[in-house]
C-alpha cells in the first residue's frame, strides 16, 4: 500500500478544494493507503474546532474525525498560518497536529504521490 | 541516503492570493526539513514561474508601503540567497512585454550568488520531468 501526501492552501468555506481533498483522502484510506493532509494558508481553517454544520456550507469536521479514527490518516496545520488567523494549538481539533512548513516537505519525502492544491 | 526533488510551479498572481508567497515560503522551508528525516536524506526544492506567476518576479515591489507586509520579492531574494534554482518562463515574459531589466535577477545585495534564470518553457518542462514531485500553486 502507498502513501499519499496532499497539501492545500484553499479555505474551508469559500472553496470546495478542501472537500475534494477530504473525499480523496477517504477514498485512498478505504483502498488501504495512508494519507498525510497538510493545511496551509486559508486551509488551516479546516483545523479549527467548534465548526457548526449549516446546510449552505461545507462541514468537514465529521468526515475528518472518521478519517482520523482509521489510524491511516494524519492532518497537520501550518502553525504560523493558523496563528496569523488568530487560532492556536488550543483552538485546533483533537488529533490535528500543528507544525512548521518543513513538516510538509518531510512528508513528501516518503510519499508515493503528492497532490498539491495551491490555488484559490 | 536519498534526495527527493520538488518543483514549485507558481502560476498565481502576486498579492491577489497568498498562493505565490506560500509557494516560496514552503520552498525555503526545505532548508530545515532534515530535522524530520534520517541522516543524509534531503528534500531539494526549486521554483518555476509561469503564466501570470511571472509577475511575482518584478523588482522594486512596494508591499510594505501599500500593504504593510513583506514583499514577495524579498522571499524570492531568500530563495536565491539559499542557492535554490529559480526559473522564469521566457515566453510568458514576452507575452506581458516584461524585460529582464524589470525582474529581480539576483540577491547580490544580501550576499546571494545564484541568479534567476529566464528560460524557455521547454526547459521548465524538462525540470518538471526530472523532479520527484510537482507542486502547482
Describe the structure.
- The complex is a heterodimer of chains A (120) and B (137).
- Chain A is of the alpha/beta class and 120 residues long.
- Chain A has a single domain, classed as 3-Layer(aba) Sandwich (Hypothetical Protein Ychn, Chain: A).
- Chain A has helices at residues 17-30, 61-69, 79-84, 102-109, and strands at residues 3-8, 34-39, 73-78, 97-99, 113-117.
- With 137 residues, chain B is α/β, with parallel strands linked by helices.
- Chain B has one domain (3-136): Hypothetical Protein Ychn, Chain: A.
- Chain B is built from five helices and five strands; from the N terminus they run βαβααβαβαβ.
- A five-stranded parallel β-sheet of chain B has the order 4-3-2-1-5, sandwiched between helices.
- In chain B, helix 1 (19-28) runs parallel beside helix 3 (72-81).
- Chain B is globular.
- In chain B, 39% of the residues are buried.
- The mean pLDDT of chain B is 97.
- The A-B interface holds A 7, 9, 40-42, 81, 100-106, 108-109, 111, 113-114, 116, 118-120 and B 2, 4, 6, 12, 17-19, 22-23, 25-26, 29-33, 35-37, 41, 43, 45, 132-137.
Question: What brief labels describe this structure?
Answer:
heterodimer, A: 120 residues, alpha/beta, Hypothetical Protein Ychn, Chain: A, five-stranded parallel beta sheet, 5 strands, globular, B: 137 residues, 30% helix
Task: Give a nutshell description of this structure.
The complex is a heterodimer of chains A (120) and B (137). Chain A is of the alpha/beta class and 120 residues long.
Mean pLDDT of chain B: 97
CATH topology of chain B: Hypothetical Protein Ychn, Chain: A
Question: Roughly how much helix do the residues of chain A carry, as a percent range?
Answer: 25-40%
Largest sheet of chain B: 5 strands, parallel
Amino acid at each position: 500500500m502507498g502513501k499519499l501526501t496532499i497539501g492545500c492552501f484553499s479555505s474551508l468555506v469559500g472553496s470546495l478544494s478542501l472537500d475534494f481533498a477530504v473525499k480523496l483522502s477517504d477514498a485512498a484510506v478505504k483502498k488501504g493507503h495512508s494519507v498525510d493532509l497538510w493545511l496551509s494558508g486559508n486551509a488551516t481553517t479546516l483545523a479549527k474546532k467548534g465548526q457548526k454544520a449549516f446546510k449552505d456550507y461545507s462541514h468537514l469536521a465529521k468526515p475528518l474525525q472518521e478519517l482520523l479514527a482509521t489510524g491511516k490518516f494524519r492532518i497537520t496545520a501550518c502553525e504560523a498560518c493558523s496563528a496569523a488567523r488568530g487560532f492556536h494549538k488550543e483552538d485546533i481539533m483533537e488529533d490535528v497536529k500543528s507544525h512548521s512548513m518543513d513538516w510538509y516537505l518531510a512528508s513528501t519525502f516518503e510519499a508515493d504521490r503528492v497532490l498539491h492544491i495551491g490555488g484559490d | 541516503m536519498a534526495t527527493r526533488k520538488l518543483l514549485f510551479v507558481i502560476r498565481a498572481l502576486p498579492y491577489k492570493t497568498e498562493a505565490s508567497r506560500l509557494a516560496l515560503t514552503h520552498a525555503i522551508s526545505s532548508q530545515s526539513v532534515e530535522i524530520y528525516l534520517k541522516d543524509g536524506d534531503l528534500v531539494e526544492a526549486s521554483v518555476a514561474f509561469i503564466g501570470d506567476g511571472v509577475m511575482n518576479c518584478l523588482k522594486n515591489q512596494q508591499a510594505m508601503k501599500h500593504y504593510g507586509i513583506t514583499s514577495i520579492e524579498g522571499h524570492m531574494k531568500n530563495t536565491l540567497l539559499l542557492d535554490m534554482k529559480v526559473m522564469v518562463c521566457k515566453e510568458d515574459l514576452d507575452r506581458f512585454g516584461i524585460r529582464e531589466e524589470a525582474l529581480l535577477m539576483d540577491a547580490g545585495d544580501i550576499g546571494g550568488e545564484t541568479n534567476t534564470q529566464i528560460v524557455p518553457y521547454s526547459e521548465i518542462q524538462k525540470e518538471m520531468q526530472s523532479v520527484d514531485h510537482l507542486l502547482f500553486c
